[in-house]
Amino acid sequence: MTKIVGTLGPKSRAVDTISSCLKAGMSVARFDFSWGDAEYHQETLENLKLAIKSTKKLCAVMLDTVGPELQVVNKSEASISLEANGTVVLTPDQGQEASSELLPINFSGLAKALKPGATIFVGQYLFTGSETTSVWLEVSEVKGDDVVCVIKNSATLAGSLFTLHCSQIHIDLPTLSDEDKEAREFLSKLGDLSQTQIFAKIENVEGLNHFDEILQVADGIILSRGNLGIDLPPEKVFLFQKSALHKCNMAGKPAVVTRVVDSMTDNLRPTRAEATDVANAVLDGSDAILLGAETLRGLYPVETISIVGKICAEAEKVFNQDLYFKRTVKYVGEPMTHLESIASSAVRAAIKVKASVIICFTSSGRAARLIAKYRPTMPVLSVVIPRLKTNQLRWSFTGAFEARQSLIVRGLFPMLADPRHPAESTSATNESVLKVALDHGKASGVIKSHDRVVVCQKVGDSSVVKIIELDD
């Protein structure tokens, strides 16, 4: 039921690898724009489309923008060794060569933001906690635009770009880089992309302090625990995770947790701690688990997806749905809105009659997401009914978009029904769509004969929740 987001990159962008990832359980593909150019990602996207066609599995696309990343620029790409207790200077002069004594950076305002004693981390793909590939620096003095640091641990930096992170310091860089803004302008030129959902990535103390306001305007939240683990003392991360996930759950907005099985980048098995961490993220209420380096450059992308899926499934068996349901109903309070009351009733009925699936007819996907908000123990089949629209010049469908977007919501499984004319919504067409949904459920093994199924649909102006008992 918990969704898996896989980041596509060098080790996972071939069509057959993407196909295997889809079969293993990836339902959202993430494109990380903090490296690689647009052409590179476009090629990967074309490969994803081919893989979707061949596996017949829907997959959503997540574009992760560059954002305000401080980076060390290493033009020669030679490895840089740093020795504990030595000193290294960070300089905004990018004409200089990177070396063990000097690291050029892409931001001239760093010296202004820092005072002696401040903590800086530098590493590739940020910091996993295995500190041989990332280094911890302490600022000893600020000289003009340069920052002189004491090296706290020996490490070797390899590659062309290292990310730099200053703990608990406000860096005066715009959240959207010029590339990001170009992307947004380009999107709006392509037509109406108001349907595109925007997820906020919380990665520092500032994000935590403004969490409630961010949650109100975002369509979903990504907890970037790699960065948070540096900005927060390690003992605080779990507390924030629990409270943030709870808030997302109550708002009915998808919550995604990152950095779960870092050790699987190079190994076939996760550590015990990592396996427990994945299970706890599910028990805490997360909608999806996001894999970064593990699938992007890891040696075992398909196995990682498969193992994370197995751990999620085990945790879901012991998820305390009863307590969660009561808490959510109490939080929503009374009087409930029409949709909220239908959604909670559908889930309650399904649990009482031990239904094997809830089928929800929806055009925007909103009703299905509300049902999923109450975390039923059975899958929610959201039957998205595409609508034909015309602007007098040509006809277009809406629906595929909404179906894909729900692929990041826990327990929600979209399928597209036959498109229909806006005027059509007779009970006969509803019955035929229901039959298609039931057949789909049988084919995928979630519905068997003699099962009970809860159906939620709109008939005219009213919403109906009904329980169907299936014969042979």
Automatic annotation (TrEMBL):
Pathway in which this enzyme or protein is active: Carbohydrate degradation; glycolysis; pyruvate from D-glyceraldehyde 3-phosphate: step 5/5
Main location: cytoplasm
Domain called Pyruvate kinase C-terminal: residue spans: 340-460
EC number: 2.7.1.40
Gene Ontology annotations for the cellular component aspect, listed alphabetically: cytosol
Domain Pyruvate kinase barrel: 182-305
Annotated Gene3D superfamilies: Phosphoenolpyruvate-binding domains, PK beta-barrel domain-like, Pyruvate kinase, C-terminal domain
Cofactor: K(+); Mg(2+)
Catalytic reaction equation(s): pyruvate + ATP = phosphoenolpyruvate + ADP + H(+)
Keywords noted in UniProt: ATP-binding, Cytoplasm, Glycolysis, Kinase, Magnesium, Metal-binding, Nucleotide-binding, Potassium, Pyruvate, Transferase
GO molecular function: ATP binding; kinase activity; magnesium ion binding; potassium ion binding; pyruvate kinase activity
Keyword Membrane in record: no
Top-level EC class: transferase
Record's subcellular location: Cytoplasm, Cytosol
Self-association state and partner proteins as the record states: Homotetramer.
Family, per entry: Belongs to the pyruvate kinase family.
Name of the featured protein: Pyruvate kinase
Species annotation: Oryza punctata
